[in-house]
């Protein structure tokens, strides 16, 4: 049985986010600070992803002043409280193999020091010394004390309502850092 630890290459990995509201959507990226995935005989068995919340970027707002203002709002306590919580993490607890290259990863997602179990389907491309892992996680932001303009907590928001679910599309590249042979 071969177990290989793959270290995430932060410069080649990111998370694309999409948040929706009544009148449209916003999107951007968030960097991955660090992390790893463990593969056993080419199958995902575990891992951890640390997201750098301070790296959040907004791609759809092109006016520099508006973009800076929006970015400051996302960094504030209304959203991610980036000063207090500069990272968010996803710790893989269990993996279900759906096919040779598709896995359902379930784990603890921690945002703003609040942890809930979350999961998503991920596709793995394995090139032995490097892997690429992609997938989409849909998160209910209100579980993590991100309640700004949520219909669950505020009434009469009209077209200023922001939907509770937001999408995180993971695009991760990781390189093998060591390999161990063990017999079972």
TrEMBL record:
It holds the Pfam family YceI. Residues 5-175 form the Lipid/polyisoprenoid-binding YceI-like domain. It comes from the Bacteria. InterPro entries: Lipid/polyisoprenoid-bd_YceI, TTHA0802/YceI-like_sf. Gene3D superfamilies: Lipid/polyisoprenoid-binding, YceI-like (2.40.128.110). PANTHER family: PROTEIN YCEI. This is Polyisoprenoid-binding protein YceI. The lineage of its organism: Bacteria, Pseudomonadati, Bacteroidota, Flavobacteriia, Flavobacteriales.
């Amino acid at each position: 049985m071969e177990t290989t630890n793959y270290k995430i290459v932060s410069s080649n990995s990111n998370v694309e986010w999409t948040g929706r509201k009544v009148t449209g959507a916003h999107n951007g990226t968030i960097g991955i600070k660090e992390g790893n995935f463990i593969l056993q005989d080419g199958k995902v068995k575990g891992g951890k992803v640390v997201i750098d919340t301070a790296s959040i970027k907004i791609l759809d707002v092109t006016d520099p002043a508006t973009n800076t203002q929006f970015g400051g709002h996302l960094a504030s306590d209304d959203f991610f409280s980036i000063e207090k919580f500069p990272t968010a993490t996803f710790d893989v607890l269990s993996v279900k193999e759906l096919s040779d290259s598709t896995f359902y990863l379930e784990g603890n997602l921690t945002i703003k020091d609040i942890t809930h179990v979350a999961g998503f389907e991920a596709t793995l491309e394995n090139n032995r010394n490097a892997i690429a892992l992609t997938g989409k996680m849909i998160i209910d932001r209100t579980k993590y004390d991100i309640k700004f303009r949520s219909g669950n907590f505020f009434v009469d928001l009209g077209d200023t309502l922001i939907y509770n679910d937001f999408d995180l599309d993971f695009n991760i590249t990781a390189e093998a850092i060591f390999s161990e042979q063990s017999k079972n």
